[in-house]
Amino acid sequence: MPELDLPQRQVTDALMLTGYWYRALPADRVRRNQLTKSTLLELPLVIGRDRPGQPFALRDSCPHRGMPLHGGKFDGENLECPYHGWQFDVHNGQCELIPSLTSDQNLRIDRIYAGSYPCEERDSFIWVFIPDPGPPGAGFTKPSEAPDTAPQIEKFSEKYKSAYLQAEMPVSIDHGIIGLMDPAHGPFVHQAWWWRSRHSIHEKKKNFEPIPNGFRMSAHTPSSNSAPYKLLRLYADADSITTTIDFVLPNIRTETIRAGKYWFSSLTTVTPITRSRCRIDVVACWNLFRWMPFGPELLKFVFAKFVEQDRRTMEMQAEGLAHNPHLMLIDDADRPAKWYFQLKAAHLEAKRTGTPMKHPMSGPVTLKWRS
Ligand code: FES
Ligand SMILES: [Fe+2]
Predict the structure, then answer these.
(1) How many Cβ atoms from other residues are within 10 Å of residue 14's Cβ?
(2) What pairs with residue 252 in β-bridges?
(3) In this structure, are residues 141 and 29 in contact, taking their beta carbons and an 8 Å threshold?
(4) Residue 287 near residue 162 (C-beta atoms within 8 A)
(5) Helices then strands (H, E): number in the chain?
(6) pLDDT tier, 123 (very low <50, low <70, confident <90, very high otherwise)
(7) 314: part of which helix (H) or strand (E)?
(8) For residue 66, which atom of ligand 1 is closest to its CA?
(9) Nearest Cα residue to 258 out of 269, 270, 242
(10) Where residue 227 falls among pLDDT bands split at 50, 70, 90?
(11) Model confidence pLDDT, tens digit, residues 346-355
């Protein structure tokens, strides 16, 4: 069907996709023998580390009478509910003890579970797998297994530096994600004398191609209107710099920059906390400027500035969104946003029908916009 030159009306459903890994907390905030609260996709979780340091994630609600477990006693192995002292194995959630039972009461306590979730530590974060909602039977469901391991950042050398940052935003996952992939806000939101001004706006042409569960902005030499890239080319003594930016469902944006033997790699996620709140987590690894004493700090400063500009913008946008549930998506600048909604719909349809997902893109596409 040919696309008309009319803006497309789009209603965001803020639907949060299950069956995926999500970043829950920075790993350095989860200490041994301690419990930390976290919310993912409106699910209350309690996250901790056992005595050897292995992380775990349980539903923060006792299967007995719903008491939050994060206030319980944790000895590095079992977690004891603060209400009636039921004890659970933190890794599989299995009930180990019900203190009120007398010796002749033979309740099968090993069939009771506090919901537990697959949990992995990767690149400075604790990731939790949120399964599709299972059949009802709260308190008796065994832990589900993740079909794959948590996503990780691609690295191209043994030695590298890394840093992370995060920002919480009062908008739904959909707005968080399309804000992340939106190319047209740059000149207006991300102005800085060392980066660019709104007057540097010019026409751009980028190639996109479909990849499983998402799309890729194909490798290219980054736009020359930003000073840092010019500097990088000089420093790396590289003929070309290639950048690849991928987006894959449910919420992952990876960016890889390679210039000769130098590289920079980042994995950004937008995580739904509730239907109306999300959090952006950026983790970056690089081997550039490793010799520079202020390298990591400088990079972190630049990123923090961008993320803060985005956060402030979305905070203001949330005010308007409260009154206008529709969006208008225009070509070509908002095409990635359209693909995101189409991918999500195609994914849900495939799940519903049990058939392979039909990718909304049939092949490579070149998009043009001014930014
Ligand atoms: S509510 Fe947890 S033991 Fe009763
Ligand atoms: Fe931005």
Answers:
(1) 17
(2) 248, 269
(3) no
(4) no
(5) 5, 21
(6) very high
(7) helix 295-321
(8) 1
(9) 242
(10) low
(11) 999 999 999 9
| 20 pLDDT above the threshold of 90 | yes
Ligand 1 atom closest to residue 84's alpha carbon, by position in its atom list: 3
- Residue 67: CB within 6 Å of ligand 1? yes
**Ligand 2 ion: residues within 5 Å (CB):** 310
Main-chain dihedrals φ then ψ at residue 59, nearest 5 degrees: -70, 130
Nearest to 127 by CA among 149, 110, 147: 149
Over residues 42-47, mean pLDDT: 96
**Residue whose C-alpha is closest to residue 267's, from 140, 151, 119, 97:** 151
Of 212, 186, 180, 183, the residue nearest 282 (C-alpha): 180
Dist CA 264 CA 256 (whole Å): 6
Out of 41-50, 63-72, 156-165, pick the least confident: 156-165
Residue 232 has a pLDDT of 72
Residue with tokens 């944006």: 253
Cα 325 to its chain centre, rounded Å, is 23
Q: Is 180 helix (H, G, I), strand (E, B) or coil?
A: helix
Residue 196, pLDDT score: 65
Q: Is the CB of 84 under 6 A from ligand 1?
A: yes
Mean pLDDT of the chain: 89
- What residues are paired with 285 via a beta bridge? 162, 265
pLDDT of the residue at 62: 96
Q: Which residues contact 31 (CB under 8 A, 6 or more apart)?
A: 49
Q: What is the pLDDT of residues 259-296, one digit of tens each?
A: 888 899 999 999 999 999 999 999 999 887 666 666 67
Q: Which ligand is nearest to the CA of 310?
A: 2
Q: What is the pTM of this model?
A: 0.91
Ligand 2 center from residue 172 Cα (angstroms): 16
Residue 261 CB neighbours (<10 A): 12
Site to probe by mutation for ligand 1, drawn from 58, 70, 81, 97 as the one with most ligand atoms within 8 Å of Cβ, is 81
DSSP H or E segment with residue 216: strand 214-220
CB 242 within 8 A of CB 257: yes
Please say whether the beta carbons of 255 and 268 come within 8 A: yes
pLDDT score, position 2: 47
Q: Is 62 in the pocket of ligand 1 (CB under 6 A)?
A: yes
